[in-house]
Amino acid sequence: MRFADIGQQLRAYRLESGMRAEEIAARLGVSRAALYRYEKGEVIKLDTIRRLAELLKISPLSLLGIGVEYFSRPLAFQERLRQVEEQADQVLQVGGAICYQATTEAFDGALAEAWAEAADQAPERIAARAAADQAMGLLVARKKLHQSRRANIIAMLSESALRRMLVDGVAAGGSLSDRTRTRCRLAARAEAESIAAQMESVPIGLQLGLLASEPAGNFLVLRGRDRAHVCLSPFAPEMTPGAGIGVGSITAADEAVAAHQRVAEAAWRDALKGSAAASRVRDLIRETTR
Which SUPFAM superfamilies match (predicted)? Predict the structure, then answer.
């Protein structure tokens, strides 16, 4: 029984629900201190596991890692993804405009500015700003985690998604001033140039390819020493917090991992790579900046 995994799900639920720790502890019939211990991976009594499964509205089997976890809030999904990445040695990415772990600091800067401006225009400014800060913190934590672990990444980016990012800029979907939107478009162009350079140089542990056909759905296969997970999400990492509507999911089911692994391997065989991929990315930059 993986109590650490259950604790991670409990923490993700706390972010998902927006409830205070005291409220969740009361529903579980435990103290707040016990709740925090459970989140850290300490042993949980079976009766508490049953109540926790009821609270999360999932079966006890799903809670024990046999089923599927669902997330309707981007923040909760990003936190759970960060937790899974902590144990991953290999990452396969299919779809999306970027591989976030390989993005530049300039990308993060433009993203933070855009999110802060969008939050300041929201009806509930304080809550929106807190959500933006939390989302940025989760992304930065994921990047720092990768820099320390150096998991091997094979990412197959979508040509259509990259084109959209070049046209709209990073942080698409937010209501931004002309000045900030211009910065976001410039950041998208600089990031595309960085992607093209990485495709040509192939840094150790990072391989980027380009898919001519857009995937029906983006996903990640993350493999660790003991187990693998499949993560499916409609929430792009550069999406403005609160702008996305959808449901993400994470599962460690063997059949799901195997099926997505096969699709990823086939996509990698068909993807443009190296100088051919870099050339196509630079064509996209020219086509969208005329």
Answer: lambda repressor-like DNA-binding domains
